[in-house]
Amino acid sequence: MPVKRPRLRKKRYALAAVLGLLAGFAYLNNTSLLAAPSDQRPRVLAHRGLAQTFSTEGVENDTCTAERIAPPPHGYLENTIPSMRAAFDAGADLVELDVHITRDGQFAVFHDWEVDCRTEATGTTRDFTMAELRGLDVGYGYTADGGRTFPFRGKGEGLMPSLDEVLAEFPHEPLLIHVKSDDPAEGEALARRLSALDPPRLAEIAVYGGDAPVRVVRERLPRVRTMSKAIMKDCLLSYEAVGWTGAAPGACANTELHVPEGYAPWLWGWPSKFTERMESVGSRVVLVAGSGGFSEGFDTPESLRRVPEEFTGYVWTNRAEVVAPLIRR
Asked: What CDD domains does this protein map onto (predicted)?
């Protein structure tokens, strides 16, 4: 029977020792068990201000969600200035809003590509001027009982704001702007509008949406945090390759990271060390519920129990009036 050579045996022992040391280093460098306790609470991202909620079961891209709302828990309509103000007053740290370019080159703050679902008109936002959109009733199509009653009809006239109006109303509050199209020209127009803001204000603005327009915003305004599918992919794949060392790759710098809770535990150093590393390169971490599809949020006291105690980033919610007081408490 052949006898193993001592030199080969020593090499194998050395390799095993090196691999063991690397594994130990990776564990100690990324476990949250050894992190110092933090008294910092998670922060709250209010999706579209205070909005009427709906079941996400069976929702598709063309579903009219206004036709399936739950019984209204409050009198606010999403993406309006009163709803944003109410969200900040409830304790939200950041408000998300949706924008579409109009026929006269302004940005309307409105969720849908088409106006048919929520208003009395038909067509896309690009078909209208901002003045025409402002004249629509954005509460027209909401119903919680299959169309028997419309609790907000007649109450949403004049409530669709422009982005200019939102920026004027909230000159200091953090805002997350969602570009709903994948048109690079829209990114160019948004970059021109935001470039008029001074640097301290720009530091409180983030932009996410389609790859093409967001890429333009990132190129024109590198100080603005941005996120798209392409940016998220570049960042997280790079991080999975080197994050075990404690490094935050350049691809993650100055980004808006929306991390689904199902994927989050696979990130090196999740939650506390991952969040610290991203913040060290100017990025913001937002935890979204479930798979992150169709704006799932942490909207109930029960769902908040799934947020790790060590997490100090932002929690995405559709019910800021419920969640923000609980987190602050």
From this structure: GDPD_GDE4_like_1
CATH classification at residue 76: 3.20.20.190
- pLDDT score of 263 more than 90: yes
Please report whether residue 17 resides in a domain: no
For residue range 61-109, list pLDDT tens digits in order.
Answer: 888 999 999 999 999 999 999 999 999 999 999 999 999 999 999 999 9
Domain encompassing residue 198: 41-328
**Number of domains within the chain:** 1
170, part of any domain? yes
CA 283 to chain centre: 12
- The pLDDT of 216-233, averaged and rounded, is 96
Which pLDDT tens digit goes with each residue over 169-185?
999 999 999 999 999 99
State the Cα–Cα distance between residues 62 and 264, nearest whole angstrom: 29
Beta strands in the chain (DSSP E): 43-47, 94-101, 107-109, 175-179, 205-209, 225-227, 256-260, 284-288, 314-317
> Does some domain include residue 249?
yes
The Cα 74–Cα 322 span in angstroms is: 11
Does the CA dihedral 134-169-183-193 come out positive or negative?
positive
